[in-house]
Specification:
By secondary structure, the protein is mostly helical. Helices cover 59% and strands 0% of the residues. The longest helix is centred in the C-terminal third of the chain and has 44 residues. The protein is elongated, with a radius of gyration of 33 Å.
């Protein structure tokens, strides 16, 4: 078959969008002939093949602590460069972060008890509803 010089014409003949042709060309599934024209049959065959998926990055393991619970290793460096009333703000922020971490640990320790009480409350309500029927 004769070559077509336009990617849009190839797309029109194959019933595709011209961006699909451009993407397939970028992926290496199809290519122009040396004279710059497109061979419709070769393009059709190339589009029938699947391109190899790009390798994915492995997932990063989740942090064991929430971001606000991580210690600020650069606080000392910053505090040395600050002058004036804002100098003590980093130490104050670190104390606040530690207080939040302690509160989060206390909540985490109480959570099973909260769930147990909630189940007991639900059971009591259900028993009361059964008794009133």
């Amino acid at each position: 078959m004769s070559g077509v010089t336009s990617a849009r014409e190839v797309a029109r003949r194959l019933g595709l969008s011209h961006t699909a042709i451009q993407n397939a060309e970028r992926a290496g599934r199809i290519a122009k002939e040396p004279n710059g024209a497109w061979d419709i049959e070769k393009v059709r065959a190339g589009l029938a093949t699947k391109s190899a998926p790009a390798p994915r990055k492995p997932y990063r393991p989740r942090a064991k602590q929430p971001p606000w619970a991580r210690s600020a290793h650069h606080v000392g460096e910053l505090a040395a460069n600050i002058r004036g009333p804002a100098r003590g703000i980093h130490a104050e922020l670190e104390r606040a972060r530690q207080a939040l971490q302690r509160a989060a640990e206390q909540i985490a320790a109480l959570y099973p008890e909260i769930l147990r009480l909630e189940r007991a409350c639900d059971a009591a309500i259900a028993a009361q509803e059964r008794g009133s029927e």
